[in-house]
Fold this protein.
Amino acid sequence: MNQDKYYFFNEIFWISAGLIALLLFGYVVGSPWFLFSLGLLIYIFWHLRQLTRLIQWLSKNELDMPPDAGGFWGDIFRHLYRIQRHNRHRQEKLVVLLNRYKESTEALPDATIILGRNWEIEWFNSKCISYFGLKKNQDLGQPLTNLIRSPVLLAFIEDHKADSNQHTLEIPSPDNELMLSIRLIPYGSKYLLIARDVSSIQKLKTMRRDFVANVSHELRTPLTVISGYLETLEEHLKDEPVYVNSIQLMQQQSHRMCHIVEDLLLLSTIESNERRTLKNDFIDMNALIMMLKKEALVLSNGRHKIEAIASDIKWLKGDNNELQSAFSNLVSNAIRYTPAGGKISIRWYRDKNGQGCFEVQDNGEGIAEHHVKRLTERFYRVDVGRSRDTGGTGLGLAIVKHVITHHQGKLVINSKIGMGSVFRCEFPKKMLKNN
Ligand code: ADP
């Protein structure tokens, strides 16, 4: 017999036995139905009494021992007590776990905010108080963008909706001098925002950039003076073949150094521009492509076949000087590293994802795969001698990468030894305008 049936038949047995006994006793004393009804009433009253005790016991906050009761009410109290004790135990464990989690997030060196699907703040750790000036009892439930009024952060969030694989954003803290690196991590329908203090890294980067810029600046004047004197010397000693050769060599080297200094200064300027938002200027890409073709024809001096293909996308948002020097670098590289008779194509087109692509393709010497990922490092050259011979500084592709990143684009390099190379700059749709 299972437990339910046992309780049922046990109860029926005892109540029937009690009522029959009362009925028989009633016949003896002369009022059987009165005693029978009295017995039933007492039975109902007893159940009501147990129910009241149960409600009183359940409504207490503390977990007290259950009231003493006989029959199946005793079992009900015992079972409920066991379930309650088990739940209480689980609750205590969860509270401990939650407190531990809270303590560990409080100990994190980064500010952490949990954001709901509409960017409302659901929870934040205390680092957010100093980083963003959030207030514990006031700002929960408020949209983040109402509290941190930074247009860059707003644009970052908008971009994140379109492409959740975005990298990080660096913004100054709204409340103090700190520089924060922000990451948004989606999970379920919510977001986790992590802000890290990168002020010291930023300071080091600024120091390095300023150092390079200052050294380059200081070198520029003496180099110009040396070049000038070398020109005068060459003029004076043109009839002395012993000196002419040495003077020409010195001139070559000083020109090369001038070139490096100019490139270093350009790189520092681009790096400091990177922290500023782009102006709303639009560049006529078709005109730029035609200008690049002319430049390429001059550089190539008839040694290569050069073609330029423009597209229906007329405008690209950005800085004219920066883009021009980046694109010129790619074109001049293609000419310098493609032997005479080679073909160079300069293209501006819309790819299948709607992005704007500026591409320079050559069928020159190509680059081995292991070099490709390092090409954009400063002074990285596949063949140092060859780069120097062709007037290279090793800074060209570093400049290109910085310019493209500043324009929210991506530089993609595809190359195969002996087959040639493709350097493609991809710009997101929002940077393009048709007319
Ligand atoms: P450099 O001034 O030496 O040309 P860059 O930064 O412009 O410096 O280029 C880095 C290196 O990448 C070059 O030294 C060269 O070896 C390689 N490179 C760049 N463009 C091409 C190309 N179109 N074809 C082959 N190699 C290239």
Remarks:
- The first strand starts at residue 111 and ends at 115.
